[in-house]
């Protein structure tokens, strides 16, 4: 797809999906560069199962950017389990005011995120290969972030224990979910409370395609109201076998 056509598809999708940040040609150019690089690297590394440009714009970029309007200006954000850089990279393109740490346990993916951020001249992105439960116990990172985001990484009871230790008191943890959000939230209420959080709100979104077909998305916002107890996060084997 040539850039001209890509830009037109972007404009249509951004117009259909309310709450996304404003799109201009410069930002669309960076999304285009991101798409080309991701599809090229995807031939040798498993980054995404979505290989058609329109679907990438919708299901990676628009989906990632739903969170933008709920993040305050100049915030420090950690994206836990960033994978191929979502929501990190789209968010960094549209929100240069943010400082984003992309965290993933897979070194190859983190190297891809680092190189891609450099290519796109995103100086508001840093990336680190480390396990969340390890970094969450580091005094340099524990309760140092205004927001922790996580997009479709794991079940929410697990995510909550991994993400909440990074968030400062007064900050927020945002879980980005597609399916069974209500069920996952119900199972997570104990973990939210034990890790120092309180449910703020759940926000339902419709991810709308050019043909007007829709997919449900849910953002779950959790306020950090008190420090996370020192015993959390536990070792991942304990978190997965016996969620809070």
CATH superfamily: Vaccinia Virus protein VP39
Main sheet strand line-up? 3-2-1-4-5-7-6
Low-confidence parts lasting 5 or more residues at pLDDT below 50? none
N-to-C terminal Cα separation, in Å?
47 Å
Beta percentage is: 15-25%
Domain count, please report it: 1
Q: According to CATH, what is the class?
A: Alpha Beta
User: What pattern of helices and strands is seen along the backbone?
Assistant: HHHEHEHEHEHEHEEH
Largest sheet: 7 strands, mixed
Number of strands: 7
Overall geometry comes to globular
Average the pLDDT over all residues and give the rounded result.
96
CATH structural architecture: 3-Layer(aba) Sandwich
In short:
Helices cover about 40% and strands about 25% of the residues.
Protein traits:
single chain, seven-stranded mixed sheet, Rossmann fold, 244 residues, alpha/beta
